[in-house]
Design a protein that fits this description.
The structure holds 2 protein chains of 2 kinds. Chain A is an alpha+beta fold. Chain A is built from 7 helices and 18 strands. Chain A has an 8-stranded antiparallel β-sheet with strand order 11-17-16-15-14-13-12-18. In chain A, strands 5-6-7-8 form a 4-stranded antiparallel β-sheet, with no helix packed on it. By secondary structure, chain B is of the alpha+beta class. Chain B has one domain. Chain B has a 3-stranded antiparallel β-sheet with strand order 1-2-3. Chain B is globular and about 40 Å long. Classes of the chains: A alpha+beta, B alpha+beta. Chains A and B meet through β12, β13, β14, α4 and β18 of A and β3 of B. The structure holds FE2/S2 (inorganic) cluster (FES), fe (ii) ion (FE2) and zinc ion (ZN). Zinc ion binds next to α3 and α4 of chain B.
């Protein structure tokens, strides 16, 4: 900055970051499908910077405890389920789902204070949730996860479920997705044409409509034209900090609509890693055999996996950024983070602006023009979006 | 984390708008004719007639109220009449 220049060059913009938060979000977190914990074996879960043990007693009820035995620190996730209790592998102390030591086979009585941390649980629509609260309070009655109508409906498929561990990123990265319209084109191969966010209370919603991308279909691929979705309508809501339900309908060329429900949820392992899970159920088309409907759900899930795998590649190498530089066609990233902050402060410290209703509807005129052109270029060049996105190995930008 | 300001709001802040129908007070920003941001406050939400009348849409996310049409009309009228800024200039880049 010599001051001799006559042109007004803007200052170099610095990327700011305060680092990952020192605590974990308050709220319901889905640990996965309940059936995967029902085998009466102890399951180790690394979450919220701790080691937990998840087990089902003989009554079938799933419990979640801190994994470390309060006797001499044995790891209960290496123990054995005996009756309704988890037995420590070290000296066989028996811990109940309420966190109390019920029995010490070699002792005349259980000492006072023999109590460990137990986590409030919720089993709903086939999924297991636990309540995390750094203040140690019980879940408020009005903070709930809505029921999903298609679950256990014979007209819908069962869950197709995916679990993946994300290393080297804080879970805020995936929450940002809910407002990031442009990345759905570049990273998830969607083509959004309508995009609106609404934040209110502990929910954050994304209304998104899109059209099918013709550059996804390989020229000469075997699928009939009518089998490719021409569009989609989605209403996706975060219910709390980590559990999103996406009410998603695919529209097909032959006029058929296929409703589905997609779950996108995560729980933090620590400040720099998290477990991402997603699941799909699909409404069975009339005349479609169950296996075909399941295959359809699997196919949808695999397409979603493709998008998430590319998210992961981005997250692995990107910088955490608290001051993103946004253009007018970007979504409300700052307002989303203001909403997200409510889960990281004490309940008494939640400010009105964190929960007050905020609406943001993007003007998709310019993105639509640009993306149409890109799709046409891909088709003209005989590329698919997938091949266009992958640089040949070893190529330098 | 200390929350930073939206760089777009530094260039052009939100402006107060009163809904013609329910007199609820909100803040609005339009970056183009087709783009709208609305900051509601609890009292405006309580006043909103359409919201009170709305029944939940079907589906697990049906409780989310999509938006008030009366307020949308108010915003459109203000914008057309020049009483609400529309940041629609194209970039010179
Ligand atoms: S450490 Fe668990 S029983 Fe002794
Ligand atoms: Fe993404
Ligand atoms: Zn209104």
């Amino acid at each position: 900055m010599t001051g001799t220049e006559t042109t007004h060059e803007p200052e170099v913009r610095a990327i700011e970051s305060d680092g990952a938060p020192a605590r974990y979000a308050r709220g319901w977190h889905c640990l996965g499908l309940e059936k995967d914990f029902a085998d009466r074996e102890p399951h180790q879960v690394l979450a919220f910077g701790q080691k937990l043990v998840v087990f089902a007693g003989s009554d079938g009820v799933v419990h979640v405890l801190d994994a470390f035995c309060r006797h001499m620190g044995g790891d209960l996730s290496q123990g054995t389920v005996k009756g309704d209790e988890i037995a420590c592998p070290f000296h066989d102390w028996r811990w109940g789902g309420d966190g109390r030591c019920k029995q010490i086979p070699y002792a005349r009585r259980v000492p006072l204070r023999a109590r460990t941390a137990s986590w409030p649980t919720l089993v709903q629509d086939g999924m297991l949730f636990i309540w995390n609260d750094p203040e140690g309070k019980a879940p408020p009655a009005d903070v709930t996860i809505p029921r999903i109508p298609g679950v256990e409906d014979p007209e819908w498929t069962d869950w197709v479920w995916y679990t993946t561990v994300i290393e080297g990123a804080n879970c805020r990265e995936i929450v940002d997705n809910v407002v990031d319209m442009a990345h759905f084109f570049y990273v998830h191969y969607s083509f959004p044409t309508y995009f609106k966010n609404v934040f209110e209370g502990h929910t954050a919603t994304q209304f998104m409509n899109g059209v099918g991308r013709e550059d996804l279909v390989r020229p000469g691929s075997s699928g009939r034209k009518s089998q490719h979705a021409t569009g989609n309508s989605s209403v996706a809501t975060y219910h709390g900090p980590s559990f999103m339900i996406d009410d998603l309908v695919y529209h097909y060329a032959d006029g058929v609509d296929v409703p589905s429900t997609l779950i996108n949820c995560h729980y933090p392992i620590d400040g720099n890693s998290f477990v991402l899970q997603y699941g799909v159920i699909v409404k069975k088309l009339p005349g479609l055999a169950d296996e075909q409907a399941d295959a359809m759900a699997r196919k949808m899930g695999d397409f979603i996996r493709l998008g998430f795998e590319q998210d992961v590649e981005i997250w692995r190498t990107k910088a955490r950024i608290d001051n993103p530089l946004l253009c007018e066609e970007d979504g409300p990233v700052y307002q989303l983070r203001r909403w997200y902050e409510q889960f990281y402060v004490d309940a008494a410290e939640v400010q009105p602006e964190m929960t007050e209703r905020f609406e943001f509807e993007i003007d998709t005129t310019r993105p639509t023009e640009a993306w149409k052109r890109e799709v046409e270029e891909n088709i003209a060049a005989g590329r698919t979006a997938l091949s266009a996105a992958r640089k040949p190995a070893g190529q330098h930008a | 984390m200390s929350l930073r300001p939206d760089n777009r709001l530094l260039d052009a802040p939100m402006q107060p708008v009163t809904c013609d129908t329910c007199q609820g007070q909100v803040e609005v920003r339009k970056s183009s004719w087709e783009q709208t941001s609305i900051q509601w406050h609890d009292d405006a939400v309580e006043r909103c007639v359409e919201r009170r009348a709305a029944s939940p849409r079907p589906g697990p996310n049906g409780a989310t109220f999509q938006g008030c049409e009366a307020l949308r009309r108010t915003v459109a009228t203000l914008a057309v009449g020049g009483d609400l800024d529309v940041q629609s200039e194209e970039s010179d880049a």
